[in-house]
Structure prediction request, 222 residues.
Amino acid sequence: MQSQTIITRDLVKSFSNTNVLKGVNLKIDKGGQYVIKGSSGSGKSTLLYLLGGLDRPDSGVISVDGESLANYSDEELANYRNQKIGFVFQFHFLLSSMNCMDNILLPASLSKKTSPNKVKPFVNEVAGLLGVTECLDKMPFELSGGQQQRINLIRAISLKPDYLLCDEPTGSLDSVNTEIVCDFLFKLSRELNITLLTVTHDKNVASHFSHHLEMKDGILYQ
Ligand SMILES: Nc1ncnc2c1ncn2[C@@H]1O[C@H](COP(=O)(O)OP(=O)(O)OP(=O)(O)O)[C@@H](O)[C@H]1O
Ligand SMILES: [Mg+2]
Prediction:
């Protein structure tokens, strides 16, 4: 059977003269719940971008389910993102020109395996659970930061990804909604066997996770 893991070897990434990732080695098992901690600027978002196929490393290997991302063309990488990855951005990347439902359904409209109509009932159900039903037909600028964050999360999980990469998913939420989102993420991970890899500065959120990783000086400690 094909192994369902994310493995990185000696991952290096620099921006101009700054070495951000200095040889990151990581192993993530399918279905696990992992949290990445580390000070601001230590490279946590940079690592998630590489794992999510949103950027490419300078050197090193990223292997997902036995396939090296380096072998993918840009189009294959886009398919990889669409089919396997859900990405909750640290700063909410909703398109300002379309309403929230259309933002959420964008991955489904690009998918070869499903369609917006098939995904809509799940979206409505999750929006209800997260308390943002009334936001769905609004434009992103009409929403608070915390509402935008939950819309961003619903878009990320809309296609039930194998791997959900969350960059500070509760950073704009109050404590009640943080709890609701955390409970929801863990339930989803258990029920659909979705692997969670989450960056957070919130100690309460981090305490829910079974596997703790720490980014320090460009090295990841597992
Ligand atoms: N696209 C980019 N161009 C230039 N420098 C970048 C770019 N992206 C990140 N960096 C730099 O890389 C370093 C790591 O950034 P990153 O966003 O990965 O940190 P982080 O650990 O996620 O921090 P935070 O906790 O504040 O979100 C920072 O010094 C940042 O300025
Ligand atoms: Mg970050």
Remarks:
- The beta strands are 5-15, 18-29, 33-37, 59-64, 67-68, 85-88, 163-167, 195-199, 211-216, 219-221.
- Residues 37 and 155 are 24 Å apart (CA to CA).
